[in-house]
Amino acid sequence: MDYKQKLNDLLLAAARQNASDLHLAAGRHPTLRIDGVLIPLQKELLVTSEVSEGLMFAMLTPEQKETLLAEKEIDFSYSFEDKARFRVNIFHQRGYLAAALRLISAQIKTVEELNLPSVLHDFCKLSQGFVLVVGPAGHGKSTTLAAMIDEINHSRTDHIITIEDPIEYIFTQDKSIVSQREVKSDTLNFHKGLESLLRQDPDVIMIGEMRDKESMATAMTAAETGHLVFSTLHTNSASQTIDRIIDSFPVEQQGQISSQLAATLVGIVSERLIPKIDGGRVPACEIMLTNPAVRNLIRERKSYQIDLVIETSVQEGMMTLNRSLVYLLKKKEISLENAELYSLSPSELRILLERS
């Protein structure tokens, strides 16, 4: 079998069917994720362990192959024929190779095209501060970040530096200089890249994902010293995000971190992609902006009260996830079943729906 050709056929099928992901694993048909649902390609043969290995190795350079065999897994980006680009993770399961490939659109969509709240434009106008996009894996965090970074690229004369593992969206430089650094190919590791960030004269910094307290500390320090910093975190809400950041540090540092976070954080967007009634997915967002009340709650470690501030600050541009879901329900874009499934408080959602 020509593994390279078979791989390209599968990647092309994923792109043509507008899949978000392609899964390859021994003992299964190649499988696409479309609008959040896994759909096996039944016309394709079952992937054997030999075919699985052949398809994986067709994507890897000799150096990457060495890394995979030594470390048992690898993250990288893969392009083919300028038709599509994928973020790939190859891993071992039960002794066999498997892969998850995330399709990355060549076109970076705008905030409007993504149906995101217009308040995100305000984040793009800031000269400094810390902005976080949070939510579960596969719910559009990277796409939302890319929309904001590209808006800055087209509207401001800044130096934008990204540190990603791997690079996802590729920015075409416009008014800004965009320096995209990929872990392993452009910097030895995440920590090394973060250490040298502030010596590279950035105005805007995008950290693909905050993985540990070192990356969180770097992000806050950069925001504190006059930079605009964007990043993502796998959390479910604004209040949970604040707790996650503070709790990542030793107890003796948490008071200082709370003060630093209160001083630098300007907003958190918590995002879910909800299946639409007529196909496709639409974002529902919780929006938290750090007004004086929120800053005090962060300093005093009372993040459990932040939900109430968001609920009562709609006029300032804040939005609870439930209000966002109700808005989509009233527009008849999503079903009540899916709204309740993605809500963090379905009972409160039903009360809101009755009142509106």
TrEMBL record:
It comes from the Bacteria. CDD domains: PilT (cd01131). Signal peptide: none annotated. Gene3D superfamilies: 3.30.450.90, P-loop containing nucleotide triphosphate hydrolases. Residues 198-212 form the Bacterial type II secretion system protein E domain. GO terms for molecular function: ATP binding; ATP hydrolysis activity. NCBIfam families: pilT_fam. PANTHER family: TWITCHING MOTILITY PROTEIN PILT (PTHR30486:SF16). Belongs to the GSP E family. This is Type IV pili twitching motility protein PilT. It comes from Candidatus Wolfebacteria bacterium CG_4_10_14_0_2_um_filter_39_18.
